[in-house]
Amino acid sequence: MGSSYMFKLTTLLYALLVLMTASLAHARTYDDVIASKYIEFAVYRDFAPYSFMQEGEPAGIDVELGKYIARELGLEARWLWLTADESVDDDLRNAIWKGSVIDRKKADVMLRVPYDREYSYAQDGYGLPRNDMVVMLAPYHKESWQLVRDLNKTGEVRNLAIFQYQAIGVELDSLPDFFLVGIYQGRLRENVHHYATVFGALKDLNAGKLSAVAGMRSQLEWGLPNRPGNFDIDDDGLESLGRKTWDIGIAIKENYRQLGYAVNDVITAMIENGDMEKIFSQYRVSYHLPSTYELDAE
């Protein structure tokens, strides 16, 4: 009984472990989601004003959006907190189609995904689709890179040349960071100050240590709740930035499109009835229609 019994027991335990892991990793169909009475959204951790913890509770634009979608579908909203990896491809893998390397847990829907046809159909180095495991749809906002300037320091100068003499803050390794240290043959480099988050830069701007900060418009607006009249936000000087604006949407696993269509219908209605804009206003962020809706209006 000894060795034979132990072998069978070990085999059984291993099989159970595999089944449990597969269950955790299993992506859920629309019917699964409705039957469970909850829907789980992947949102980025510590990413104000979109998703963050406030007084021990989830908060932010994307959290409010998730709650709204869940309510319209008659479900409870739950959250899969996602730490940003090296690329959006990695985030999609971890959140939607494969799961984290630790527990393989996945969400039903990922929020704040770049909605871009070129990106959606991009190919890898072997000519194969990079994102064939996910579907990106339901654009709900247009984000942009902007500058907030202290006009008492920059005056009427609207180009970037002034930052050869004035200090400007950026989040480390962001697109504005790479852009500013490289433009004008690197002549701005000494005056580009790096911060772990854009909010650290805004703190120094308020303290008079910087003349400007470059970042996402939503974060600049959120981070300056009592913006003085001499702080101006626009995109002047960023004309040669690779991409100044981009749409934001959702992602689901490729073979569960019915769920995506249901969420898309809710988001479309929110945009059309003004509820989407109200959520952004709640967080002091100006709302901008995705490019799809702008084209439809022309």
Automatic annotation (TrEMBL):
Residues 38-287 form the Solute-binding protein family 3/N-terminal domain. Keywords: Signal. InterPro entries: Solute-binding_3/MltF_N. Residues 1-27 form the signal peptide. SMART domains: PBPb. The keyword Manganese does not apply. PANTHER family: ARGININE-BINDING EXTRACELLULAR PROTEIN ARTP, MEMBRANE-BOUND LYTIC MUREIN TRANSGLYCOSYLASE F. Belongs to the bacterial solute-binding protein 3 family. This is Transporter substrate-binding domain-containing protein. It comes from Zhongshania borealis.
